[in-house]
Amino acid sequence: MDPDKDSARGLAQLAGYLLWNAEVEEARRQAGRFTDELPWLTTAQREEVERVYTANRLDASRAMLCRISARATELRGEYDARYHRLKARCVAAGVVLVGAVGGACTAVTLLAR
User: Fold this and answer.
1) pLDDT per residue over 47-66, tens digit each?
2) What is the pTM of this model?
3) Nearest to 20 by CA among 61, 52, 75
4) Which residues of the chain have pLDDT under 70?
5) What is the CA radius of gyration of the chain?
6) For residue 99, how many C-alpha atoms fall within 13 Å in the half-sphere facing its CB?
7) Using CB atoms within 10 A of its CB, is residue 16 exposed (0-12), middle (13-18) or buried (19+)?
8) Which of 50, 61, 64, 103 is the S-S candidate for 31 at Cβ 3.0 to 4.6 Å?
């Protein structure tokens, strides 16, 4: 087990937890603002509207995060593939260059005799 990876994973989980809690609180604030615009609601109705509004907002946020996560995974795969192709091209170009320089040096040495 790598302590650095464990620490990074723990920090990422903590950041995710804090971000999600901030989203929950923002959904609750918006639900409260929404019901404030409906002064004729009873207390029970107000609580129910806030609950439904918050649940809908969190469902939408969760769906958005799932889409973003899936796209990030797709992009990671695409960029990894591009990186590996670029790395292979650079290595191939380096081998060709070293071979060309070696051949030129050999040719100069043979011609200089």
Assistant:
1) 999 999 999 999 999 999 99
2) 0.68
3) 61
4) none
5) 30
6) 6
7) exposed
8) 50
